[in-house]
Amino acid sequence: MNFNFSPEDEAFRLEVRQFMQENVPPDIARRAAVMYPPPIADFRRWQKILNAKGWGAPHLPPQYGGTAWSPIRKHIFLDELYKADGIDYGWQGLHMVAPVLVAFGSEAQRQRFLPPMLNGDEIWCQGFSEPGAGSDLANLRTHAKLVGDEWVINGQKIWTSDAAESDWGFFLVRTDQTVKPQKGISFLLVKMDAPGITIRPIEAINGGHDLNEVFLDNVRVPKDQLVGEAGMGWTYAKYLLEKERTTSAFLYFNKRELERAKESAWRERINGVTLIDTPDFARKLARVEADLHALEWSVLRILAGERTSHNADAVVSALKICGAEMQQRVTELQVDALGARALRFFGSDADTLHNSDAWPADVPGKSARFLFERASTIFGGTREVQKNIIAKLEFNL
Ligand SMILES: Cc1cc2nc3c(=O)[nH]c(=O)nc-3n(C[C@H](O)[C@H](O)[C@H](O)COP(=O)(O)OP(=O)(O)OC[C@H]3O[C@@H](n4cnc5c(N)ncnc54)[C@H](O)[C@@H]3O)c2cc1C
């Protein structure tokens, strides 16, 4: 078996690397390295640069702006993008709702919504979770009624990332109370400045304000902003969540940040000994690195289309668990390596203090990211729920 990339793929890697070197604006790279999430204005700017190159959404079919790259090339591309501190494609927009519009939306919806999404002109949020409907999403109560040519929505969402800065949101709403819970849900596209929407930020443990409560009070949405068929929202949401979890190995982030943990460990000293030479730290680092290699090979096996004897849902759930735990382990290594200096809280000054004498490049933002990553085993489906899915694994030997 040949484990190397083909010469053509290696040439592609060099092409992408050169593009990143020449095109990631240094101020965007600096902020992307220390702030999470990076400012939306940076995301908009960077997305325009990618789109101008024709790389606005490699994962979509070519007729909707995709690149027709092989899965391995998409892997190489993201690897290089992260290494250069470029910003990943918008999670809720390009990763989530775009594939749903391609698969289930009308042609008019694709033409209306995909171009501004690819160009960073319109930002999206995801209105699924509610108080009382997180893991048990089918329990959602926000409801919509068709009145004339409009859906009228009432209810509340919570944990809606980026709601306050988004132009559009995709919402799961109950449109039929008379059928079993999963059957009566619909998928609506909602303009976030529509009358009747109130957005209230929730301050997170890392100091971020990107999470929100969203209240919907008689919000009117034109009938043609329903995706697919009424009552089929659960099917579309499952499709979307599966896509979310496939990308949830967070491989590229984990690889880049492990390298940064090593850089810190090569510089920091304890009682005159370089941290990397202390057995406890070296052992912990080696364990994380070995597991990260294993995760990368698992992702590559899936990208290479290897047939698996396990059912696909279980594989995706396993990747989600390993990737989420890996984010926690890598960021923990970073704060371990920085010792007491990791206790300094960096808010919006993470950018300006970056790489000063007192605070070398690897310090700002690390503790905030470490704190944020406590959530990685919650969002996109909690670890326990993923384990339930794996427990129901079917063998097709
Ligand atoms: C940072 C962050 C960003 C988010 N962004 C968004 C967003 O943009 N849009 C959106 O719609 N949602 C978002 N969410 C919400 C996220 O999807 C939910 O938090 C998640 O689905 C869990 O739901 P919950 O918080 O209601 O917890 P619950 O479902 O109430 O779970 C509480 C605990 O019980 C456990 N549990 C629940 N059910 C079971 C079971 N059957 N078996 C075993 N254990 C179980 C869980 O694992 C968890 O430990 C975000 C969450 C976070 C933390």
TrEMBL record:
<protein>
    <submittedName>
        <fullName>Acyl-CoA dehydrogenase</fullName>
    </submittedName>
</protein>
<feature type="domain" description="Acyl-CoA oxidase/dehydrogenase middle">
    <location>
        <begin position="125"/>
        <end position="219"/>
    </location>
</feature>
<dbReference type="Pfam" id="PF02770">
    <property type="entry name" value="Acyl-CoA_dh_M"/>
</dbReference>
<keyword id="KW-0285">Flavoprotein</keyword>
<dbReference type="InterPro" id="IPR036250">
    <property type="entry name" value="AcylCo_DH-like_C"/>
</dbReference>
<dbReference type="InterPro" id="IPR037069">
    <property type="entry name" value="AcylCoA_DH/ox_N_sf"/>
</dbReference>
<feature type="domain" description="Acyl-CoA dehydrogenase/oxidase C-terminal">
    <location>
        <begin position="231"/>
        <end position="392"/>
    </location>
</feature>
<dbReference type="InterPro" id="IPR009075">
    <property type="entry name" value="AcylCo_DH/oxidase_C"/>
</dbReference>
<comment type="similarity">
    <text>Belongs to the acyl-CoA dehydrogenase family.</text>
</comment>
<dbReference type="InterPro" id="IPR013786">
    <property type="entry name" value="AcylCoA_DH/ox_N"/>
</dbReference>
<dbReference type="InterPro" id="IPR052161">
    <property type="entry name" value="Mycobact_Acyl-CoA_DH"/>
</dbReference>
<keyword id="KW-0274">FAD</keyword>
<dbReference type="Pfam" id="PF02771">
    <property type="entry name" value="Acyl-CoA_dh_N"/>
</dbReference>
<dbReference type="Pfam" id="PF00441">
    <property type="entry name" value="Acyl-CoA_dh_1"/>
</dbReference>
<dbReference type="InterPro" id="IPR009100">
    <property type="entry name" value="AcylCoA_DH/oxidase_NM_dom_sf"/>
</dbReference>
<feature type="domain" description="Acyl-CoA dehydrogenase/oxidase N-terminal">
    <location>
        <begin position="6"/>
        <end position="121"/>
    </location>
</feature>
<keyword id="KW-0560">Oxidoreductase</keyword>
<dbReference type="InterPro" id="IPR046373">
    <property type="entry name" value="Acyl-CoA_Oxase/DH_mid-dom_sf"/>
</dbReference>
<dbReference type="InterPro" id="IPR006091">
    <property type="entry name" value="Acyl-CoA_Oxase/DH_mid-dom"/>
</dbReference>
